[in-house]
Automatic annotation (TrEMBL), chain A:
PANTHER family recorded: REPLICATION FACTOR C / DNA POLYMERASE III GAMMA-TAU SUBUNIT, REPLICATION FACTOR C SUBUNIT 3
Residue stretches making up the AAA+ ATPase domain: 34-187
Name of the protein in question: Replication factor C subunit 3
UniProt-listed SMART domains: AAA
Alphabetical UniProt keywords: DNA replication, Nucleus
Main location: nucleus
GO cellular component, one term: DNA replication factor C complex
Organism of provenance: Aphis craccivora (Cowpea aphid)
Subunit: Subunit of the RFC complex, an heteropentameric complex consisting of a large subunit RFC1 and four small subunits RFC2, RFC3, RFC4 and RFC5; the RFC complex interacts with PCNA. Forms an heterotetrameric complex with RFC2, RFC4 and RFC5; this complex has ATPase activity but is not stimulated by PCNA. The heterotetramer of subunits RFC2, RFC3, RFC4 and RFC5 interacts with RAD17. Interacts with CNTD1; this interaction facilitates crossover formation.
Record-stated family: Belongs to the activator 1 small subunits family.
Its job: Subunit of the replication factor C (RFC) complex which acts during elongation of primed DNA templates by DNA polymerases delta and epsilon, and is necessary for ATP-dependent loading of proliferating cell nuclear antigen (PCNA) onto primed DNA.
From TrEMBL, chain B:
This protein's name: Cell cycle checkpoint protein RAD17
InterPro entries, per the entry: Checkpoint_prot_Rad17_Rad24 (IPR004582), P-loop_NTPase (IPR027417)
Principal place of residence: nucleus
Entry keyword Acetylation: no
Subcellular location: Nucleus
GO CC aspect terms: nucleus
Regions that span the bilayer: none
């Protein structure tokens, strides 16, 4: 399917719609001819990937857009073979090393070695380096990140590495210091409204301001989701109606239901029910930190102001241990239990106050 | 002298040293005089008191009948009779003894396969060199020979059977080869084979249900010997031993019961422990020592048992309700888990919730588990081994849970496997997503979060169907 989100993706740094200063800086960086390793970070749907691809185009010309997918084979120390899918052009290669799970270290090392050991054929016309694009660096294991740091220094002559992550909290400091970190913040509501309108204009549709605002408020400042919502709304009903309901992702609704369950009753039995609901979300591949974030949002919405502070405090505590720990579910459950306790205590006290 | 010639010249033709002769005589005598023999103090009681007739077996009568029935069916002319018997059961429940005795009663002679420790080179005349025969070939030759040709000794008997207690290790890696040999055996053999195995994994690997059907294997499962029968056997041994040796101290019934508990009903181990208990007094090491249990074996707890002790903690109040200790020491519990600490932690997390009665207790328990998980995945190591870290983190969880659970709910609920392990296969899921949405250049995580929810409106029919099947949340 050719989605609007792909169709209207700006393909050069001159055409991006927001963070114009940053785009100018990136253009200058490329025009110099050389640049350090880069680390793009920012929330989902803020335009990290768009900027990276535009940067590559600026660097190598339209040749980067001729993409081919390749399957690369790797061998673990225990002689188990596994396969990783890569997307590559003549000038760059894109890999999500965390696809390999616990073997990501091998992918990082082998891949950079094979790519970096070959020089560009015609270095007079082209740049003298290639680009390796690693996505979701924050999901890499610590070992893989250590390996990345060593290979990064070693092959500086023949390749540049562009890293892409949601948050640099999970990236080890050694890598952070070797890269130029570029933060891509989420677009503002006004930015999103503006972009939605231009897309509609190009499609020959009319978009009422109210609907644009509703979409921008429901998309969590995620531009990709906003454009998808717009397209889904158009399929559902056109001409647009001001009071039209927008499609909200199912998993988000489900997290809302879970929050309602937590608020409805605070007993061990309910906690057990909530646990099975959380598992249901995990089965569907929703990352635990996303669940945590939306759950907290829903819960805090229904809390008294005096309670909010405490809730956010415990949430930050368990979110931290979730990142440090291994089994994310344990911490999520501990948070829910703690919330239930605080909430039920608060409700009791306020009831006593009334009578 | 070549080894070939060596084989022809029996050592018996050479001069026999007198000591060997004496030894041979005594060993010949032993089976007849075993019960009354008193001068032979060194041989262990297991050998001396091996039952000499079927009626003296401690095995349940029904099982004896089953085995006997199988032997009798061999002589019948049924077309569909099974030539292979698989005897399974825990260690020390007299499987081999029972089979041998019953066979003897039915008039069969036992040929036993013992896997050779080392293989000696064989002289090959054609090439004038030595070659080694591998265990697999030897095993095959042995089965071939033992099941087709009558042993010289079994002239008068009904026949012979082949007893295999230890299967060569090579077959554990290559079960196919084993099945191959067995299939060929099944078509041509004259005499039956009995396998005696107590390892569940080997049984599963080598004798899957299809194979059992294909080879027409009859399986007989032996159970643990009951406390009563073990105790009777032990008492009989003590009685007859006492006649020979007046100095022997008779262990009282609590000690006998303790022996049974320690060995988990393993008859062989019970007899060895019994001889040790009796001996320690005879040698007058110390009287006090003998009254405490010998406890030669670790307390053997299975996983469910130990988890039960954690999630239903028992307290013993010492003076006041604030001063108490746990009946089961948390440290011992932690050390006795025979599994990876992370797995145990998963089990605890899955099961603790339903045993807690109040929410505040749950909070403390969940905190302990959360802290344990953080410790377990910490990567700091200043001279501390990963093993130590994992043990201490498990200890945090166990102590935390036991302490937090002030009023455990004493209702039986089955202990369940942690769901967490089934649910963390993201990698496979991400791969699948990439295949379904091969026309979208996004990372699978983004596809999952942003594109799949809108697939109903925007996707192709195929993608819609896949999403309908797999990405539906179950709502009540």
């Amino acid at each position: 399917m050719s989605l609007w989100a792909d169709k209207y993706r700006p393909n050069s740094l001159q055409k991006v719609d927001y963070h114009l200063d940053q785009a100018q800086h990136l253009t200058n960086l490329v025009n110099q001819g050389d640049f350090p390793h880069l680390l793009f970070y920012g929330p989902n749907g803020a335009g990290k990937k768009t900027r990276i691809l535009a940067l590559l185009r600026q660097l190598y010309g339209p040749g980067v857009e001729r993409l081919r997918t390749e399957h690369m084979n790797f061998m673990t120390p225990s002689n188990k073979k596994f396969e990783i899918m890569t997307v590559a052009s003549n000038y760059h290669i894109e890999v999500n090393a965390s696809d390999a799970g616990m073997y990501d270290r091998i992918v990082v090392m082998e891949l950079i070695k094979t790519v970096a050991q070959t020089h560009q054929l015609d270095s007079t016309k082209q740049r003298h380096f290639k680009v390796i694009l690693l996505t979701e660096v924050d999901r890499l294991t610590k070992e893989a990140q250590q390996a990345l740091r060593r290979t990064m220094e070693k092959y500086m002559a023949t390749c540049r590495i562009i890293l892409c992550a949601n948050s640099i909290g999970q990236v080890i400091p050694a890598i952070r210091s070797r890269c130029l970190a570029v933060r891509v913040p989420a677009p503002t509501h006004e930015d999103i409204c503006k972009i939605l309108k231009t897309i509609c204009k190009k499609e020959g549709l009319t978009l009422p301001d109210e609907l644009a605002l509703i979409i921008s408020q429901n998309c969590e400042r995620n531009l990709r989701r906003a454009i998808l919502m717009l397209e889904a709304s158009k399929v559902k009903q056109y001409p647009f109606d001001v009071k039209q309901s927008v499609v909200v992702p199912d998993w988000q609704l489900y997290i809302g239901d879970t929050a309602k369950q937590i608020l409805s009753q605070q007993t061990p039995g309910k906690l057990l029910e909530v646990r099975s609901m959380l598992y249901e979300l995990i089965v569907h591949g929703i990352p635990t930190n996303v669940i945590f974030k939306f759950l907290l949002k829903e819960l805090v919405k229904n809390c008294d102001v005096s309670l909010k502070h405490d809730i956010v405090e415990i949430a930050s505590f368990y979110e931290h241990s979730l990142l440090k720990g291994n089994k994310t579910m344990f911490h999520l459950e501990a948070f829910v239990a703690k919330f239930m306790l605080l909430y039920s205590k608060f409700m009791e006290e306020s009831l006593n106050g009334i009578f | 002298m070549s080894p070939e010639k060596k084989a022809w010249i029996k050592p018996s033709f050479e001069e026999i040293p007198p000591t060997i002769k004496l030894l041979k005589q005594s060993s010949k005598k032993r089976p007849h005089t075993a019960l009354t023999q008193s001068e032979n103090k060194n041989s262990d009681w297991c050998n001396i008191y091996t039952p000499q007739s079927v009626s003296k077996l401690a095995v349940h009568n029904g099982k004896v009948k089953e085995v006997k029935h199988w032997f009798e069916s061999l002589n019948s002319n049924l077309l569909n009779k099974s030539k292979i018997l698989l005897v399974t059961g825990p260690t020390g429940c007299a499987k081999a003894t029972a089979v041998k005795l019953i066979a003897k009663q039915c008039g069969f002679i036992c040929l036993e396969w013992i896997t050779p420790m080392t293989t000696e080179p064989i002289y090959d005349q054609c090439t004038d060199s030595y070659c080694y025969q591998n265990v697999k070939d030897k095993f095959q030759d042995f089965i071939w020979g033992a099941t087709r040709y009558r042993s010289l000794k079994c002239g008068v008997s009904n026949g012979q059977f082949l007893l295999i207690k230890d299967i060569p290790n090579i077959f554990l890696d290559k079960p196919d080869e084993f099945h191959d040999i067995m299939m060929r055996f099944n078509t041509i053999s004259q005499f039956p084979i009995i396998f005696i195995i107590n390892n569940e994994k080997i049984i599963r690997d080598l004798f899957s249900t299809e194979i059992l059907e294909k080879l027409k294997v009859q399986q007989i499962k032996f159970n643990q010997i009951t406390r009563k029968s073990v105790l009777t056997v032990l008492e009989q041994i003590v009685k007859s031993e006492q006649q020979k040796n007046k100095l022997l101290r008779i262990p009282n019934s609590t000690e006998m019961n303790a022996i049974y508990d320690e060995t988990n009903g393993d008859l062989r181990a019970s007899i060895i422990n019994l001889s040790f208990t009796c001996m320690s007094v005879r040698n007058k090491i110390s009287k006090k020592c003998s009254t405490t249990s010998t406890s030669s074996m670790d307390v053997n707890l299975d996983l469910f048992h130990s988890i039960g002790r954690v999630i239903y903690p028992k307290r013993e109040v010492i003076n006041s309700p604030l001063q108490f200790k746990f009946t089961h020491n948390p440290d011992n519990l932690v050390e006795n888990f025979a599994m990876q600490p992370s797995t145990v932690l998963g089990f605890l997390q899955e099961n603790y919730l339903t045993r807690f009665s109040s929410l505040s207790d749950i909070c403390k328990g969940a905190d302990a588990i959360s802290a344990a998980d953080v410790m377990l995945s910490s990567d700091f190591m200043f001279g501390v081994s990963i093993y130590d870290i994992s043990l201490s983190s498990l200890s945090v969880a166990v102590r935390g849970l036991m302490l937090a659970n002030e009023k455990p709910i004493k209702v039986f609920r089955p202990i369940v496997k942690p769901k967490h392990f089934q649910y963390t296969n993201d990698i496979q899921m991400y791969k699948d997503i990439k295949i379904w949405f091969d026309d979208v250049h996004e990372s699978p995580k983004d596809i999952l979060l942003d594109i799949i929810p809108f697939v109903n409106e925007l996707g192709t029919d195929k993608q819609k169907n896949v999403a309908k099947e797999l990405w539906r949340f179950k709502r009540k």
